[in-house]
Amino acid sequence: MTFKIEKIDFSAEDIEQLGTKEKFWFYFQGNEETKWLFKYSRENTGEHWSEKIAEVFCEELNIPHVTYELAICGGRYGVVTKNVIPKSSRMVMGNEVLNKKFPKNYPKPENDSKHFVHVKEHTVDRVLECLDSKILPPNINSYDTSDLSASDVFCGYLLLDALISNQDRHHQNWAVIVDQDTGKQYLCPTYDHAASLGRELLDAERHERLTTKDVNRKIPTFVAKARSELFRLKTDKKPLLTCDAFYIAVENRSTAKSHWLDKLKGFTEDKIVEIFSRIPREMITETAKKFAIEMVLENRKRLLEDERA
């Protein structure tokens, strides 16, 4: 069964003018209790289908996640997602969490912080240390995570990043939710995975990489270069490769390591192909689909065959 496409059609007064013109919060008419976010997919990208595929992968791997639906608004594709932050709570981005924990060592959040997401102090160890004192997300996805800590669950986010070549796990693409009445804090379900699966490539390059005999242009070489926005040490010149980010995170976390690798082992090639087959044909070319599938299969192989596994 193909993924459904939500048709978003509303008048200007229904829109809550927040964010940029490429995304906005709104309420469906007749339901002013639930706020929704619509995000446009940039022209000539597959940001809509890559976000949806990542969400379904989370479901298969039992990773707590925000849900997305494919959507169209004003003739443009995008995704729509329901607000998961309770009214009594606020979402605290990773950069604020880290600055509060390490005020002398982590940069203070800037007003225009979207321009300051590539931060070398954003290390795996610092993130996990912050999350060691938090609790898990509420039962938003009803997964059994009773044996896992919040930091163990974050390791699952890093496994997902490695599987889909998500290179956008910067310090505003993970968060903690704080209940302002009780002070209780928990890890926010993972969100914002559109920068993955080669969604920005044009079909000419995809086809060339799928058919070339040049080893340096093939998919295994392409995905092996994917980098996280996490560093190992603040003195490093480049952020970690996505596979390295996961394996460094689970290095001393045997429960998290075995849990997520077992989930990945059960995520078969047939299931991966079947999920991609559910993307509406008008939203993705066969070349883009084949390329993205080959990326995932190669990343799955790399993760499971890594000497650290």
Walk me through this protein's architecture:
It is a single chain. This protein has 309 residues and is α+β, with helices and mostly antiparallel strands. 35% of the residues lie in helices and 13% in strands. It has ten helices and nine strands. Helix 4 packs across helix 10 (286-305) and helix 9 runs antiparallel to helix 10. It is globular, with a radius of gyration of 19 Å. The model is unreliable at 16-20 (pLDDT under 50).
Structural key phrases:
Phosphatidylinositol 3-kinase Catalytic Subunit, Chain A, Domain 5; alpha+beta; Phosphorylase Kinase, domain 1
Please sum up the structure shown.
Helices cover 35% and strands 13% of the residues.
SSE layout and pairing:
Elements lengths: L4 E3 L7 E2 L6 E4 L9 E5 L6 H15 L7 E5 L2 E7 L6 E5 H8 L22 H8 L18 H15 L10 E5 L5 E3 L15 H9 L7 H6 L17 H8 L4 H12 L3 H8 L9 H20 L4
